[in-house]
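Fold sample X.
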Amino acid sequence: MEKKIVGFRLKGEEFAFNIMKVVEIIRLKQITPVPTAPSFIEGVINLRGKIIPIIDLRKRFMLHEDKRGKNVRIIIIEMHGNQLVGVIVDEVTQVITVPEEQILPAPPSIVSVGGRYIEAVVQLDEKIIVFLDIEKIFSDQENTEMQGISMMEAGIEESPDS
């Protein structure tokens, strides 16, 4: 069975998400910081009236932070069926359909050292793309915190006194 993926780069490495989880891809816009949020949460954006937590995958994966380039995008993902989260990536590279024979299971050695969020590895020509499961990148507690940020910020936005 084929899978459609959205490919992106972080620090020169190739990654991908299942396109069924991707709502849209937008240019980087003004991000409002959220005090006391986990360090990998860059802040929130207002996207057509919805408050969306923005995650910096470089911070999440403990990659060195460089200055952001002109191709930086935010991939808006739907998690757990209803929660929207934005993920900052260096560049979106491709949207492609991958044949099943090019999708290989994640090596057990990677999964056992904290890579539970690696769903598979995609072999394209000479490139290897790490296929991520966005819902497994965050712990249950972190997911709850992100939901709280969305609801808290939405409450602030809707307050009649603001």
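Fold sample Y, listed below.
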Amino acid sequence: MKKKKFRGYIFSREFMGERVPQNVQNLFIRDFCNKKNFQYLLSATEYAMESSSMVLAQAINDLKKIDGIVAYSVFQLPSKKQKRIEYLQKIINLKKTFYGALEDLKVSNNKDLEQIEEIWDIKNNLQFCPKNISENLKTKKYEEKN
């Protein structure tokens, strides 16, 4: 059986507060592809300019002869929701697949897209959650149990 071909997609800049060296991203994607029995095609590296997704857009436009894209992380997708959904919807419409290797998540249909959007919403809202439990709350819960 012929192996499915996937183009890697990596960043040269920080994403969601993380910075991972390009060689580490490539090693991770290559290992991910090997485990899935995919043929790994050399990664496309996004431009370093803030919020750039030009290389990803080009990789999506070049999907005709391959099966999809494997990014190091789903958080390397555009941070703007509208653009992110537009790109993923285009991949779905082309009947191709997008993977986030770090999270082992894929997008090949609208249900997958909804799951990715839920994860993005959670990640974006974590900054508004309490970082620790106040002493008053800890004491109150202890008193309620006893």
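Sample Y note: The chain has a mean pLDDT of 91.
Also: The chain has five helices and five strands.
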